[in-house]
């Protein structure tokens, strides 16, 4: 009969006490042998440990860094007052166990990141590197390693991730293209819109030269702007046509610690629709909506420039005032819409029969004005006669069938070297138009050198 043996709990307690004692002895031994090593471990910004491969990670030895890492003094862990596995965040416990066991099975070191519950109630991030120690018979004796607080690093990592997510969200605005390149034009980052516009895969673009992706002229212009930004360290805004679209670009400098422009950010917005609208508005501002000819305001502005040039070059300029005969009766008989069709047809006929350099406008109602640069009275009267003939010979096609029409034209010339206002020249032509109407219509009437009207009016304008 055997004497009653100690129960298993008693054995475990004794065993733990024995191990702690051994550990203390080892530490003392270690200090005696190599006092610097122990001091080094204690001064390390982290916790060196030796523990058992059990569910509690029972600590046989921890360095003084334990206090900073866990908030508990080393004795608390070494006397199992605090169980290390309880400090590991519940969500990380099994992962830690599995990773350690896997590494031990392969007899290699392990590195794990996990959360621990600090004594102050906060959750800290820990990084652990450990390894096993085996007896000559291959029996695992103990685990030892090092655990350090990486909370600051984790916070920075998270902040960086958040920052990157924000940047990515900004970069991936659906409408605008954004890219970052180095000072040689090599792409560092770009959003999906850039890739779509360049018709390339985003990943393929990174590392390639932006200039190589663009048509020669666009690349040359961008290169010029890039050099300007690098030299001035100031952003530049410019517009450019690329393929069939218009873009508004802003090129921003990105400076390094030495305040040199080391990278450039290009932000591009597709403004094609805006450009089209601008063009339409510009067109509307200068043209007559019914006939598409210049409106009166634009005519005056262009005519003033033309007259100024004529004075400088001492060349003659002529003006025609053109009016449809009995237009009121067309409206009265056929209605306003047919009247509009007639106006449109006459306008395009006049345009077709004048030179490209002549300035033609709808002056008002059924009246048109034309300024003929570098044209003397004789040529102008020939032109006017040709116009009259053309309208008289060509019935206007309308929804109510063809209509025969005539026009009357007054012609005036400003002789080369004279200086006058557009209004003066037109007034003279208008008087001649009145004369043509009075004389029976379907005819032209020209200012003749015997008329002193223009001379007199021009004289009044002297000194302009
Ligand atoms: N359909 C149409 N008619 C217009 C427009 N602007 C002016 N008119 C008409 O043009 C006519 C001009 O009439 P009048 O000034 O009497 O001249 P006219 O009938 O051509 O007679 P004469 O010039 O003396 O040969 C008027 O009935 C105006 O209403 C327009 O944009 N469309």
TrEMBL record:
Enzyme Commission identifier(s): 2.7.7.65
All residue ranges annotated as the PAS domain in the record: 54-107, 163-233
Residue stretches making up the PAC domain: 110-162, 231-283
Catalytic activity: 2 GTP = 3',3'-c-di-GMP + 2 diphosphate
Residue span, GGDEF domain: 315-449
UniProt-listed CDD domains: GGDEF, PAS
Pfam families named in the record: GGDEF, PAS_3, PAS_4
InterPro entries with a match to the protein in the record: Diguanylate_Cyclase, GGDEF_dom, Nucleotide_cyclase, PAS, PAS-assoc_C, PAS-like_dom_sf, PAS_4, PAS_fold_3
NCBIfam families with a match to the protein in the record: GGDEF (TIGR00254), sensory_box (TIGR00229)
Protein name: diguanylate cyclase
UniProt source species: Marichromatium gracile
